[in-house]
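Q: Structure tokens for this one, please.
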Amino acid sequence: MTDAPRLEADPPAERLPPATRRSLYDRFAARITRDDRARRRYAWLAPALVVVLAAALRLWNLAAAHDLMNQFDETYYVKDAWSLAHLGYEGSWPENANERFLRGEADIFTAEPAFVIHPPLGKWIIAVGMLALGPDSGWGWRITTALLGTAAVLVLMLIAKRLTGSTTFAVVAGLLMAVDGLAISMSRVALLDMSLTFFVLLAFLFVLRDRERTMTAIARTVAARLDGEEPPAWGPVLWNRPWIVAAGAALGAATAVKWSGVWVLAGLGIYLVLTDALARRRAGVLLWPTDALRQGAVTFVLLVPVAVAVYLASWTGWLVTDGGYDRHVAEANPAGGLWSWVPLPLQSLWQYHVTMYNSAAQITAGHTYASPAWQWPLLLRPTGMYYHHDAFGVDGCTAVNGCSAVISSIPNPLVWYAGVAAVLYLVYRFVVTRDWRFALVLTGVVVTYVPWLFFPARTVFQFYTVLILPFLLLALAFALRDIAGAHRTDPHRRLTGQRLVLVFLLVALALAAFWYPVISAMTVPYDFWRLHNWMQGWI
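A: Here is the predicted structure, written as tokens:
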């Protein structure tokens, strides 16, 4: 019995007529070109839409709360920023300054210096908006914070794209931050934490850019030295690392906003030394531990001095004027011995910093919204920034129990708890795979959270976690990517995973819409506000 002749449905291309062959190639090339154009369009359009959404949620009705929120530091930072812009240092204000300031009497500060416990850069940033738009409403004193909050979403997506290699999951991370209640509320009040977050994210982006250059440079240099011989004892000493200098400048700016930026500076410095050491070991450098320490000294020179220079530059107004707090304290008690060569203004600045640190360390007074750092992952006491209630019939309120306007800094509960779980998942993944990307994200979590655990008596608040939030979202992006599955995953498993991710995102977006009115000072029925108090500590 002979087999039936076999028909070839798709004959080899070389057996087709030349004209047909050219037509097929042209159609195939056109399809590839269309797909490539679609990918390129998606790569910029999707992140752009997320940035537009973030801007809209942060800028809409920005001045709705015509208040300086005297329960929190907006009452200080706004007035300090305005006097800083006119005096070069923070001036003093009369006792009834808030009421008069809100009525439009902005120039009632005096030349008498005020004692402050935070560096000036964050207040200079607030002052820029007030100088541009005036101090008459929240638009002036909140606009720069809102813009930096929007920019932070963009920087997060750039980091996520480099870490995950996926535009889609970079957009997921950016979208979750764009609509998150904590990120939005902290972008809509004139506090320092969103400026701090922006500069810290910028520093992490710069460190990522440096890694792309440095790892390749180490591998190429060592490979060139090998050339069939024994592995080299020493690797290259890399001075040409402009992204490390940029990261130092960003971290100097972060520290010039709030001193907690120095923890990030130290943590990223340690991270750079360790990654350099591991890269040299992988490349086959024999004396890689000592070689890494040698490179670590160079990295310190590239990273730290520029950070110190940027930090000192933020104090220019205090240094070039005579009226700042403790401006001439060193003249009465100059340093002797080895420090006698330091100019008196810098000696005064150092003594002022000692006073600032001692005062900040002693902030232990009770506060209604205080939340120690150990509580933060559990989200037990989110911070209520602003609350205004209108009884029935007042200001157009028609609800039976009146209406409320609220700014709560609570994050999206689903995203927050999922982000905390994703960090634990990432710890497990790092232990199993030793993936450097997981290490970088976990470094971000550690340097922005763990130091606060060492100050259990200090009065701190849940809204400080806006600096931790981007790293939780990066961990969550990795976890969601794993749930969605890789291209080589079983199709049924991948489809199920993608559906789970889609359901998660839809629920997260629905919760974001539910929470937005009570993080943006919209006037809502009091009963609607009460629907958001899922835990006793959330009021």
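A few notes: The beta strands are 91-92, 110-113, 384-390, 403-408, 523-525. The longest strand covers residues 384-390.
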